[in-house]
Design a protein that fits this description.
Blueprint lengths: L1 H18 L18 H16 L5 H19 L30 H16 L5 H21 L2 H15 L1
Helix pairs in contact: 1-3, 2-3, 2-4, 2-5, 3-4, 4-5, 4-6
């Protein structure tokens, strides 16, 4: 259990470290920091459960998967964080990424939910049917909430953005 807690702490430190990379590239409001972190926290909590319950997730595999989830989350919401820059060109193998429309509105929690759902399905493809159903349920829960709260065009643009970043 201590190894898993250490892995969780490492993942959180990675996210904090990634969020401290700054530059002078500003994006229009709304900024990602205006939203709560519940989407990220819930997805990483589920991912830690999946690491423990999915066959083949040794500590190196688990840490790599959680690291990729963290980078995917960061890159998905980075356009909504004025002063932060992409990790493209800074991480080995991460050369080019899609670019958000600079004047388009995005709902960052929707984008994060979609990206993390897609990435989780890719990294935990051999999870049990019950755990894959948990992935579907978490995504659907946030999607239903946000569809009711967010303008339709902004919701669909955000969902597409999250999907493109995960791909």
């Amino acid at each position: 259990m201590n190894a898993w807690l250490g892995l969780a702490r490492l993942c959180l430190m990675l996210l904090v470290g990634l969020s401290s990379v700054a530059c002078a590239q500003a994006r229009p409001a709304p900024v990602a920091s205006r939203y709560a972190s519940d989407v990220a926290v819930d997805w990483f909590d589920l991912s830690l459960d999946l690491v423990r319950e999915t066959h083949g997730f040794s500590p190196p595999v688990a840490s790599r998967s959680l690291g990729y989830l963290g980078v995917g989350l960061y890159e998905t919401v980075q356009p909504g964080m004025p002063g932060y820059r992409s990790l493209a060109g800074q991480l080995n193998g991460l050369a080019r990424l899609p670019q958000a429309e600079s004047m388009a509105g995005y709902h960052w929690p929707t984008a994060a939910n979609t990206a993390l759902a897609s990435l989780t399905r890719k990294f935990f493809a051999n999870a049990t049917p019950e755990n894959l159903a948990r992935v579907d349920a978490l995504e659907a829960s946030y999607a239903a909430r946000y569809k009711a709260e967010v303008d339709g065009a902004v919701y669909w643009r955000s969902e597409e953005w999250g999907r493109s970043m995960a791909d």
